[in-house]
Amino acid sequence: MNKKGLLKLIILIVILLVVGFFLFFNKYKILHETKEECPGLNCVKVQTTCCPCSSGGKEACVNKTEAKYYEEKLKNECPQEGLVCPAVYSCIDLSCNKTNKT
Q: Which domain holds residue 51?
């Protein structure tokens, strides 16, 4: 194989790996928008993606009545074994028990 053919093959493999990586991790995202504040005092912080925020996932502030919904959704949609999460710390300080003042 000549050098041009080898270079094209390497570029193709890198592109496929990058696309595959993003498709794989997007599959395990449950909620794409993170709510930073929740009106009222009945708010709790919940994990909204299969991976925790300490491993590239997201959290949100939701009403306590919605927390069970997210817990069940993650239980049903996330794999119990073989989940690979990136080693990226993405936690942000959410103020779940403050009223929304704008």
A: 30-77
The structural domain count of the chain equals 1
Render pLDDT for 27-81 as a digit per residue (tens, 0 to 9): 555 544 444 456 667 888 899 899 998 988 888 888 888 889 889 999 998 887 8
Q: Is the dihedral of CA 65, 71, 57, 11 positive or negative?
A: negative
Residues 6 or more apart whose CB falls under 8 angstroms from that of 35 comprise 60, 61, 62
Give 62's contacts (C-beta < 8 A, 6+ positions apart). 35, 38, 43, 44, 46, 70
Whether residue 93 is contained in a domain is answered as no
Q: Is residue 100 part of a domain?
A: no
